[in-house]
User: What shape does this take?
Amino acid sequence: MLSHVEITARVALTEAAHFGWSNRLEYSHDCFVCGRTGRTVSLRHGATHGVCHSSQTALDWQDEQAARGSHPAPIRVTGFDVNGSGATRELRCRLSFWWSPFADAERGQAEGGELGAGPWVRLFYRVGCHACRDAGEADWFNGEQSVQTNAVLPVARPCTRCGTDLVTMTGRPEITLVG
Ligand SMILES: [Zn+2]
Ligand SMILES: [Zn+2]
Assistant: This one.
């Protein structure tokens, strides 16, 4: 059957933050294709499918097919809306996936679920520092960072160069099964 989950997340920004959500994420998934619970799928908005792999470790997209045990998975990003301006940025993301009940191939007592036993998501974003930019620093861009469900709150991410406060997350991303 076709199932959907909605993921929402919100971060607070300082005026020094140059912020944008990345178009990729990682999500916990009970995968009926490989018959395993607690897998991780890597997803990219615009991609026609996800990639299922065994680890929560971020993999480079190009290397995922080569990662051991990974396979294409029938799950993709079907909604990706960014809201907010000024001090807050919200991400509302919808995932749609084919799913069917199964028992874990290696742990028979573990039943696959639409949401899994411990729903988890890792969201990526890119951030730069206006304080460094205005000071003429060539490397004012901090690059890509991530926030995830099991982070210790609040998450505070100051500039990696000058220490100016940039991004704060006070609540966990929410993951909801939707009809
Ligand atoms: Zn799988
Ligand atoms: Zn800075």
Notes: Residues 31, 33-34, 36, 39, 52, 71, 73 surround zinc ion (ligand 1) (CB under 6 Å). The chain has one domain: 2-178.
